[in-house]
Amino acid sequence: MSNVDKLLSDRKKTHGNFPDNARISQMLKQVARTAPNWDNMNDSQRESFDLQASKWGRILAGDHNFTDHWDDLVGYATLGGTNSGMSLATVASDIKLSFGGMPKVTDIDEAVLKKA
Q1: b (16+ CB within 10 A) / e for 78-108
Q2: If residue 46 lies in a helix (H) or strand (E), which one and from where to where?
Q3: Separation of alpha carbons 17 and 105, rounded Å
Q4: Does residue 22 have a pLDDT over 80?
Q5: What is the pTM assigned to this prediction?
Q6: Sequence-ordered list of residues with C-beta below 8 angstroms from that of 41, at least 6 positions apart, any chain
Q7: 16: which DSSP letter?
Q8: Residues of the chain above pLDDT 90, percent
Q9: 16 dihedral zone (left: phi>0; alpha: psi -120 to 50; beta)
Q10: Which are the contacts of 68, defined by CB distance < 8 A and separation ≥ 6?
């Protein structure tokens, strides 16, 4: 058995049958591209989704208990979020700028009441 054949045999055990994996992954990606926010996402977020879809294909077609699949999902999701430009720190900074510092709950209540 050649090195490539051995590698493909090993991967089939964890990743499943390639045509099944590909079909599942491509269906997930096609659905995502019809979603309202697809065009609003940046390249990093879209690539993160595509890579996650590939991992979901492996989970659904292959060994769902293979820890690396789940670890990779977390990693790709983290990369998509990291490159989104929006984080808790960004939100906190925006709030501080809006209120001239970190607001108290009563400040927020007053701002909401003024808009109501």
Answers
A1: ebbeeeeeeeeeeeeeeeeeeeeeeeeeeee
A2: helix 43-61
A3: 55
A4: yes
A5: 0.70
A6: 49
A7: -
A8: 66
A9: left
A10: 14
